[in-house]
Amino acid sequence: PVDADNEIILTPGTQGALFLAMGALVGRGEKVAIIEPDYFANRKLVEFFDGELMPVQIHYNDVEHYSGLDLTELESAFKNGAKVFLFSNPNNPTGVIYSPDEVATIGRLAKQYDVAVIADELYSRQIFSDTLPYTHLRALPERPEKLVTIIGPSKTESLSGYRLGVAYGSAEIITRMEKLQAIVSLRAGGYSQAVFKDWFAEPVGWMTERVRQHEAIRDDLVKIFRACPGCSLRTTEAGSYVFVTIPKLEVTMLQFIKLL
Prior knowledge:
Elements: E1 8-11, H1 14-25, E2 31-36, H2 40-48, E3 52-57, H3 71-79, E4 82-88, H4 100-113, E5 116-120, E6 147-151, E7 165-169, H5 171-184, H6 190-193, H7 206-226, H8 253-259
Parallel strand pairs: 2-3, 2-4, 4-5, 5-6
Antiparallel strand pairs: 1-7, 6-7
Helix pairs in contact: 1-5, 3-4
């Protein structure tokens, strides 16, 4: 449940929501824990707000399912002063999702160490059929009080041009985000907001077919890259990306000049 009066904000895109959430929570010199690898803008946002980065690894290639989040490293970051934890679930770019235990532990540790959490769940509707269930931190008893969840229709529904985002969570954080948005962009466009009326109200079967089409694209890409000598990747569990390991390229300067 979300209190519509105090716990939700409509933003010009999920990128806008992410900027507002970081601006509401991160001060100069404050420590921010981020996942590596994760959305490329996360690191840039911490640097923009003059925060101190505390990277936490996911060992996604060492596990068959889920993220392989290093929970010991995460707790260490919290112990050592992280004030904010930012992560995407499903993870962008690896396409892995976090297990119920991983998500619950994130919530429990955040509560224990009083860490604010920003959960970027942009791809949470695009979960493929061969994966385990998706877990929303917001829906768990372990959720921290300082929590903001970000969602939007830009990817799965291909509505990125409308610049629509939604953030919901702690009333205190949402209020600060509202104040910042009033300065930087005022609001999401009214004509764009009209699209929200039909979001989550698609015809029966539309979303299932949509995700199936994304999954078919994923399967084709996995086959192509696995056929390339030296390339490897883990089958993604969600999202619109694949994260490929490619062999080191041995190119001499002479070969490079010839290519030019």
